[in-house]
């Protein structure tokens, strides 16, 4: 089979398998990096995921065949082209939408793919190189351990209820480097002259399985939380960049010798890095947050169930008022009949011709010792019991102005 045809076939099977991974992730219980045994069990017992895994393994066999006939400089642009149909699948079948800033990043990635294809020039002949173990350790160790630690430690952080949803840049990078490491091992697998089961005596099959398992596990967790468009695009850029750079280091594949093609390849890598940095880190906040997600076409699921992204958000518990603290909280059931707001009580208007003075309070004489005073009555000494009560201070009610108290009648007034 022609190497170019095998590379395109491998890319198509890979990304169709990734789309099926998304369908499987929507039907799994939430997977977490800090519960690895449970995550492995949940993923491997999902039959939809196994269908996608079978397609990916078919792409693996075609990729081995392609790398036996093509250099990395020719194969990497072909492998990157698979992100285009995956974006179309995510928009048509999963109802995803992108902002203008995200479209700009995709345009930059497309320009990087074009520059990478133009930088091929005169490809060097393929040569078989024996890779020392220290090079394998330098390339494989960080690419596996760092994403594994990131996904484990990040899931120990409690999820904030009001945290803004992320777009999945970290998930794309964390899955891209293990996937790129698996493709590096596939390159060594294809260059090795071992026949049949003799390949098991080399480290390449084990590195391929370990790296791919980690990358696919992170992809499933990312597809449950983020959009396929962003995660798969960032994963593709990081994986193919790592494949191209570390492939030069491990297998001594030279870069273009002339300045023009060298500049094109360097510019392609720079555009890919700028595109990843250009992606927003969080999904945009909608103006009307209470109306739910924007309306998108329902997912045309071949397995007979709409994905959660197309069904929209889960219904939220209504807010009820805490009778003890007076603060709203999310309760299970709302109040049966909300209390209508009551208007403040207004003071009664005084009768015409009467002063606006409260009635005087009659004091009580203190009881003899041993006998308690009735509750609510003031204690007055005996020598002040017969004195007239003091005139109460006039206070305006706020609604009617205070009226002055008329003076007592004089001795000559009738």
TrEMBL record:
Cross-referenced InterPro entries: EmrE-like
Listed Low complexity bias regions: 381-391
Keywords tagged on the record: Membrane, Transmembrane, Transmembrane helix
Superkingdom in the source lineage: Bacteria
Residue segments, region Disordered: 286-414
Membrane-crossing residue ranges in chain numbering: 6-25, 46-66, 72-94, 103-121, 133-154, 166-186, 206-223, 230-250, 262-279
Designated name of the protein: Uncharacterized protein
